[in-house]
Design goal:
Chain A: This is Aldehyde dehydrogenase. The complex is a heterodimer of chains A (503) and B (498). Chain A is α/β, with parallel strands linked by helices. Chain B contains 15 helices and 21 strands. By secondary structure, chain B is of the alpha/beta class. In chain B, 38% of the residues lie in helices and 21% in strands. A seven-stranded mixed sheet of chain B has the order 15-16-17-14-13-18-19, with helices on both faces. Chain B has a six-stranded mixed sheet with strand order 10-9-8-11-12-20, with helices on both faces. In chain B, strands 1-2 form a two-stranded antiparallel sheet. The chains are: A alpha/beta (503), B alpha/beta (498). At the A-B interface, helix 2, helix 4 and helix 14 of A face helix 2, helix 4 and helix 14 of B.
Chain lengths: 503, 498
Amino acid sequence: MPGTTTLDLDTSSFKGSISINTGLFIGGKWCDPVDAHDHAEIINPSTGKKIMVISLASSKDVDLAVKAAHKAYKTSWGFKCPGKERGKMLLKLADLLERDADQFAAIEALNVGKPYHVAKAYDVMGAVEYIRYFGGWADKNQGNVIETNEAKLAYTRHEPFGVCGQIIPWNFPLLMMSWKVGPALATGNCIILKPSEMTPLSALKFAELVVEAGFPPGVVNIINGYGPVVGQAIAEHPDIAKVAFTGSTLVGRKVMEASAKSNLKVVTLELGGKSPTIVFDDSDLDQALKWTMQAMYANMGQSCVAGSRVFVHEGIYDEFIQKFSAMVQGLGQTAGDPFSANTMHGPQVSQVQFDRIMGYIDSGKSEGATVHTGGERHGTEGFFIKPTIFTDVHPEMKIVKEEIFGPVAVVLKFKTEEEVIEAANATTYGLSCCIFTENISRGIRVAHALENGSAFINSAQLVDHGVPFGGYKQSGIGREHGEYALSTYTQVKGIHVNLGIRL
Amino acid sequence: MTSFSYDFSGTYTGKTSFKTGVFIGGEFRHGASKSTIDVVNPATGKLVTQISEATAADVDDAVKVAQKAFDETWGLNVGGAQRAALLNRLAILMDEHADELAAIEALDNGKTFGWAKGVDISFSIATIKYFAGWADKIQGQTIETDEKKLIYTRHEPIGVVGQIIPWNFPLLMFAWKIGPALATGNAIVIKPSEFTPMTALRMCELINEAGFPKGVVNVLVGYGHTVGQTISEHMDIQKVAFTGSTLVGRKVMAAAAATNLKNVTLELGGKSPNIIFDDADLEQAVNWAAHGIFWNHGQACCAGSRIFVQAGIYDEFLERFTAKAKSIQVGDPFAPGIDQGPQVSQIQYDRIMSYIDSGKQEGATVHTGGERHGTEGFFIKPTIFTDVTPEMKIVKEEIFGPVGVVIKFTDEADVIRQANDTVYGLAAAVFSQNINRALETAHKLQAGTAWVNCVNQLHANVPFGGYKQSGIGRELGEYALHNYTNVKAVHVNLGHKM
C-alpha cells in the first residue's frame, strides 16, 4: 500500500500540513506500481532541496489503468451517465478545489516555485473557473439534424472517444490538469493522466477531490512516470483512442509518431512557441511596456505563449528599451521565496531547466548579442535566474530562433508594418502574438496577418476559458477552451434512418 | 405589508414563513393600491391567506428599478461567469428548501406533495442549473466577407423583460422564465398568477440570498387585466414572454402591437393528439396515455387530450385505459397514496364541469367519471368520453381538466389529418413499434413537440413551444437564449475607402 507524506508548511503566506499520497491512482484507489522500484525525488526549486519522494509507474501500470478506465466507461460513465450528472460532478469538483484553494496554491508554490499569491489567483482560481465552465457544457453537447429529404432522418451524435490519454507539463501543473480533465469529462470520456514527474504533487492531491466529488472509480486515473516510459506507453497504447499532449515540440513529435506506429489514435498537441510582441509607434507606450513585461516574464518565462521576441518600432525604440530595462531590473529585485508576499519572480522549475536557460544565455553572448540586463544567476541557492534582455540580435541567432522557456527576451527594431509581419512569421512556431497600437484598423489587420492561434491586441496572456486556444504550424494541433474543446474530445457519428427509400 | 406562516401536516410536516408583499428592488412593500388578493386552498375551498396586490403603478416602479439595475449593476456590467455563479447559488438554495417549496406548491395549487417534490421542484432546480451553464457561453459569430472587413455579431441582453406565468406549474414556469432571462443578462418584471403566487413569493428571499443585485428580479402579483396588461403595454419593457391561454395570449400580442412593438413570445394552449397504432406496445400505450391526460389533473398545456386508437386494439385499449383511470386515487394533496388533488380554483372547476355537461348534451358517452369527487374542494373524477364527433366542443376546445376523449380510427393518413385538424399545435404523441411509421407520423404532425412511444417528456435542454395558435417561440434548450437576446452585427472597416 502506498504511503502519504505530510508536508508541514510555516510561511507568511500559508501555514498548515498537507498530506499527499505517493502512489498511483487507478480505479478509484491508491496503489503501488506493479514493479515497485522506481521513485522520483521531488525538489523544491527555491532551495534545490528534496521535498518528498513519489512512486513512478511502468507500462504495466498504464495497462491496469486502461483496463480500469474501460470498465468504468462501459458501466458507469460515457453513455451510462447523462451529461446532466457529469455536469453536477464537475461543478462539485470545482467547488471543492475552491474550498481547498490555499492548499493547492501552497503546493504549486512549493513544487514549481511560482509566487504563492500568483499561484492562488491565477493557477488555482483559473482551474476552478475552467472546470466550472466545462461543467456547464456537459449537458449541451449537441449534434445536428441535417435536412436531406423527407424519406430520411439524418442526424449526428457527438460521442466520447472512450478512454483518453492526457500528458501534461510542469509549468502550470494544476491549471494544465484542469484544461485537460474539464472538457474530457464533460463529454463523457475516461482519463489516463500523466503529470510531469517533476511537478506531480497538485495532481496527487487533486485525486482526493475526484473521489470526494463522486466520480465513479476508473473515470480519472493518475499515473506518475517518466515521459519515455509512461508517456510512451500512453501514446502507443492500442486501447487508448485519443491522446492529448502539452509540452515541447520535440516530445510532441514522439507522441504523434507513437500514434502513427500503433493504433492511429487521434492526437492533439499543444507545444512550444517563440511568440512575437509587436510595439508600434502609435501604441500607448506605458501600457505596452506593462503588457510586454507580463507576456515575457510571467511564470519566469516558463509559458508556451511567452512573448519572447519583442519587436519595437525604431521611432520609439530608445525610449522603450530604457523604460523596459528599468522595469525588468525592478522585477529582478523582487526575486525570492515564493511564499513571501513581495516576491514577483521565483526560481526556474529545476536544475535541468536552469542549465538549459543558462546555456542559451551563454550562446547569446558567444553569438555576439548584447546582454542589456540580467544574463546571470540570482543568488546562490535554488534555480533563480535574473530577468534578462538581449539586444543587438539578428534572426539567425539561437536565442532568436529557439524557445528558451526562461526569463530571457530578445528585443529587435523594425521600420514598417510589412517588414515586422514577415519577421514575426519567420518561425516554425505559431502559438500566440501581442500587438500594441491605438489604431484599430492596424491592430486588427496585423492580428489577421500573423500566423498564430491566438492574437492579443493591446494585451497579453489573457487566456479566457471560453475562447479557443492552440497553435498554428509546429506549435500544435487542435484547440483547447471554449466550445471548440468539445470537438477535441468527441467523435462524430452520422446516423441515417431510412423512412421510405425502397430498393 | 403581508407575510405568511404555515405548519404543514400529512406527507410533509415542516413549517414555512415568508413575506408576501410586492417585491421590487430587492424589498417587499405594500402595493400602491394597498389592496390584497385572497389565496384559497383548492383542497378545501377555504381562504389560506391574503397577499399584497400589485397594480399598474407598481409595474411602473418596477420597470424603473429594473432599468437602473440593468444599466448599473446587471446587464453587460456583469460577466457571464458571474451570472452563472449566481444562478448556481440560487439552484443550491432551492435544493436546500426543496421540501418546503413542494409543500407550498401543493397547498397553493392542489397538486400532491409527492408530484410537486418529484417533478415540479426537481425540474425547476434542474432548469436553473441548466441555464446557469449557458450564462458564460453566449456566443455570437464572426462572418467572413472579405479581408478588408471584420464582421461579428453580439448577442446582447434585451434590457427589462416582462414575464407573465400561469397557475398550473407555478414554480416550474417561474424557473423556465427567469433561467434564460437571467443567464443572458436581462432584468425582469414577472407577474405570477394571482391564483398561485406563493412559491414565486418564497423565491424572492432566495433570490436575495443568492446575491442577485437588487432590482434584477421584481415579482408583482396582480391581476391579468391590471398588471398583465400594464406589462404588455409598457413603453419601457422591450420584450414580453407570456404563458397561459390562447385567449389571453392574443391580448398580450395586441397590446404590444398597439404600443412599442415589443418582442412577444407566447406559450399557449393545446388539444394535443395521442395516436395509438395497433402495433403499439399496448400496456405501455395505456400507461402513457393515462399520464398524458391525467398528469397534473389535466392542467397541462401539452395534455394528450384527444386519444386516437386504431380499431384493431380499440376495445382492449379502452378497457385497460378505463381501469387505469378508475385506479387513480383522488384526494388531499398531503395524504399518502394520493395521485390527484383538486383543480386549482372554483373558476376552473366550473369551467371543466361545464365542458363535461356539454359533452353529455352533445351526445357523447361518459365512459367513466364525469362528476365531482367528494363534497369539499374542487375535485373532479378522472373522466373519459367516447362516441364523440369532431365537431363537439369537448373534442375541439381545450378543457384543461382530467377529461380525455377517445376516438377510434382505421386509416393512417386520415388520423394524421384529424390530429392536425385543430388551431392548436403544441404537442403530439404517436405509439407504434414500427420505426418508419413512428417517425414518419411524428414528422407529419403539426406540433412543436412530437413524442414517440412516450408522452409529456420534458428536459431542460430540449426546446418546447407551439405551432399555429399554440404559441410563438421556443423555451428550454439553447433555443431559449434567442428569446432574451438582441443580435447586433458589428462591421469594422479595415480598409474600404470612399
